[in-house]
Design a protein that fits this description.
The chain is α/β, with parallel strands linked by helices and 221 residues long. It has 9 helices and 8 strands. The protein has one domain: P-loop containing nucleotide triphosphate hydrolases (Rossmann fold), CATH 3.40.50.300.
Length: 221
């Protein structure tokens, strides 16, 4: 049947990356973390002192033209630098959400993502994979969970990495990002009509992945 493209969308903290990685491992497919790509862009924009202002638009376009983002051995590289540990902070998360609304950013990264899907079978997660990047993906999922559960997960993750964060601040950040992602003009976060929705709030990681495997086997049998 050619390349198998599995699209996984959903709000921040719904477990997309965790589930996508495990799913890719079980299916022996390549995992592409598109959220990490946008976070890397946010990091680079911040380092270069660029903002969302119209005055910086030409500089942003030039910066994107010279930006290389790749995945090597489970690590995220930005222009050859391993930035895996630098892009998982609340500050970079917000920048990723902000800059992902810009056409010059999305056009460059979507082009890279589509090119990957044309070359090989992949599991790809993000905000608009099933609705924009791979509208004709063979299988689409939409993972969600309550804002409170997602904030609890994110807070636990950040604390395990040694970051001093509060549940209240994390919940506020989750809710703000939900609003930004679902209300942006360009490819807002939404469930594709043909996507299978899975509420992960009360499910274990294994239960979610098992359910996804059942769906995929049913679609590709």
């Amino acid at each position: 049947m050619g390349n198998l493209r599995i699209a996984i969308d959903g709000p921040s903290g719904a477990g997309k990356s965790t589930m996508a990685k495990l799913l890719a491992e079980r299916l022996r497919l390549d995992y592409i973390d598109t959220g990490a790509m946008y976070r890397a862009v946010g990091l680079k924009m911040s380092r270069e002192g660029l903002t969302m202002s119209d005055e910086d638009r030409e500089k942003r376009i030039a910066l994107m033209d010279s930006t290389d983002i790749d995945f090597e051995g489970g690590k995220v590289t930005l222009d050859g630098e391993d930035v895996s540990g630098l892009i998982r902070t609340p500050e970079i998360s917000k920048l990723a959400s902000d800059f992902s609304s810009l056409a010059e950013v999305r056009e460059k990264l979507v082009k890279i993502q589509r090119g990957i899907g044309e070359r090989k079978s992949v599991v790809m997660d993000g905000r608009d994979i099933g609705t924009n990047v791979f509208q004709d993906a063979e299988v689409k999922f939409y993972l969600t969970a309550t804002a409170e559960e997602r904030a609890k997960r994110r807070c636990k993750e950040l604390k395990e990495k040694g970051q001093d964060v509060s549940y209240e601040d994390t919940l506020a950040d989750i809710r703000k990002r939900d609003h930004n992602d679902s209300h942006r003009k360009l490819n807002p976060l939404k469930k594709a009509e043909d996507a299978i929705e899975i509420d992960t709030t009360s499910m274990t990681i294994e239960e979610v992945v098992d359910e996804m495997i059942r769906v995929i086997e049913g679609r590709t049998a």
